[in-house]
Amino acid sequence: YFPKLQPSDTAYPRFKSRLSPVELERFYTLTDAERIFCDGATRSDTTRLGFALLLKTYQRLGYFVTSIHVPCSIVEHIGALIGASCNRDNLRSYDASQARRKHLSAVRQHLSVKVLSEPGKLLLQQTLANAALTKDDVIDIVNIGIETLVRHSYELPAFDTLVREARAQRTATTQAMYARIE
Question: CA 113, 26, 92 angle in degrees (round to 5)?
């Protein structure tokens, strides 16, 4: 039996439940260059707000989320900055749109971030296996995996994916050590 790990048990980035005005300003305010980038990549207020949310939340989290997972204070802050209405229904439509899929690629390219493809998965597996040689706690192994992916500019996978892979690598490493001893 494995206890259910939560993102809050690890260094996996997540939104704070309450953000101060200083935090909103510091982490979720678009720079002039980001405003130009958003304006050039979008045509309407709704897509501009969705695009700006993708950009700023990715910069903070290291993975993409849909607008429903973004706290209202962040949506309202970014909406006010760019003069867009914060209609959640319009944002849900944006989340399901082809425009969002194109915008994901544009944000990745702008931030020089890579999708977690085969080379990234192999890097993660090797990192987790190496970490399992010296760490027993899955939390520590996950944290080392997160650090490595961020350092190599990979988009973070879902939290459960990291936990499953960390457990699998810890089990494989432990079994290999037992086999050598035996």
Answer: 60
Digit-coded pLDDT (tens) for 104-159: 999 999 999 999 999 999 999 999 999 999 999 999 999 999 999 999 999 999 99
CA dist 131 and 121 (Å) reads 15
Write down the residue that tokens 């399992």 correspond to.
132
The DSSP secondary-structure symbol of 57 reads H
Q: Is the dihedral of CA 111, 55, 96, 42 positive or negative?
A: negative
Question: Residues 23-75: pLDDT tens digits?
Answer: 999 999 999 999 999 999 998 888 999 999 999 999 999 999 999 999 999 99
Structure tokens belonging to residue 149: 């992916």
Ordered DSSP codes for 21-39: HHHHHHHHPPPHHHHHHHH
Contact 77, 32 (CB under 8 A): no
3-state helix, strand, coil in the chain (%, to 5): 70, 0, 30
Orientation angle between helical segments 45-61 and 32-41, nearest 10 degrees: 130
